[in-house]
Specification:
Length: 90
């Protein structure tokens, strides 16, 4: 299986690079592990709130949707929750 900078694919790596801190704050606010679904829903809503013009009938919408749909949300959640466990142990 081909990876990108140690992540399952480029889309997953991009979400981790751009939103890791945001998701970590969400995890701390909830005081619990985040599920893949939590991560997916939060990032989709955040991107839509920040860039509503990107969600309509357009090339940009199709490209952005394609990227977000190819993210391995389970891997994003696993990475965040591993960090959370490390924080709790310290």
């Amino acid at each position: 299986m081909q990876t990108f900078n140690g992540w399952p694919n480029r889309a997953t790596w991009l979400v981790q690079i751009w939103f890791d801190g945001t998701l970590d704050e969400l995890r701390r606010e909830h005081g619990r592990d985040l599920t893949a679904s939590d991560c997916r829903e939060y990032i989709w809503q955040l991107v839509e709130d920040i860039h509503p013009e990107c969600f309509g009938a357009s090339f940009v919408s199709d490209a952005l949707t394609g990227v977000l749909e190819s993210v391995d949300w389970w891997e994003i959640a696993r990475h965040l929750n591993a960090g959370y466990a490390d924080d709790q142990a310290a």
